[in-house]
Amino acid sequence: MPTQMRIDFVSDVSCPWCIIGLRALEQAIARIPELEVEFEFQPFELNPQMPPEGQDLDEHIMQKYGMAPADTARTREAIRERGAELGFEFRLDKRDRIYNTFDAHRLLAWAHAQGKQKALKVALFEAYFTRGENPGDHAVLLQAAEHVGLDSLEAARVLGSDAYAEEVREREQFFHQHGINAVPAIILNQRHLLQGGQPVDVFERALRQIAAEAA
After folding, report:
1. Which of 54, 81, 91, 206 is such that its CA lies 20 to 30 A from the CA of 35?
2. Which positions ≥6 away from 21 have C-beta within 8 Å?
């Protein structure tokens, strides 16, 4: 009999460690065939005050983290290598700005009800990190929605309104109030917290342990 597990994946589409964490977690799950997982992606904005036009990435990292360009370049290369190991392509030559992601989270909230949330999340990671597109641009969001089989007219209606805005803000506030200040934050069965882009083996051990406890 399969073991059921709920995974709340708190993340932002502009967070490179979030797609690394997701890919590693997926590979860990694939090693445990008896595990049946239900994903729900929860919103987290790394930069909620970011204007629509975004900001130069190096400038932003210097202001927020105090990292010099040389240090930033080394970190990006390490991220690129880790992504490649997990089958995800980070194109360092394509991405030079960081953007506001609130509308992306609204669209993801809508996609959850359509059963396409995970597919849309991955499509938005690819749009930003592989192609360097703006995940706050409605044209980019609509293209991603259509790509994963969502109704583009309904997606446009959601984006053209305030739909899911209150829900996204409430979920963000909920996780902040419960101590989630960095992502990815991975909550298993609403009880166990894993953080960061951990190696596949680390995720596998944690999943097996928690599944055994649940059984």
Report:
1. 81
2. 9, 11, 184, 186, 196, 197, 198
* Closest by CA position to 200, among listed 208, 192, 211: 208
Say how far apart CA 97 and CA 126 lie, in whole Å.
Answer: 15
Please tell me the predicted confidence (pLDDT) of residue 2.
84
Q: Of the CATH numbers 2.60.40.790, 3.40.30.10, 3.40.50.300, 3.40.50.11720, which one belongs to the domain with range 3-49+99-214?
A: 3.40.30.10
Amino acid identity at 68: A
Q: What is the pLDDT of residue 69?
A: 83
Provide the whole-model pTM: 0.96
* Mean pLDDT, rounded, of the chain: 96
Nearest to 207 by CA among 32, 38, 15, 65: 32
Query: What φ, ψ does residue 10 adopt, rounded to 5°?
Result: -90, 120
Residues of the chain with pLDDT under 70: none
Closest CA to 8 of 106, 121, 102, 126: 121
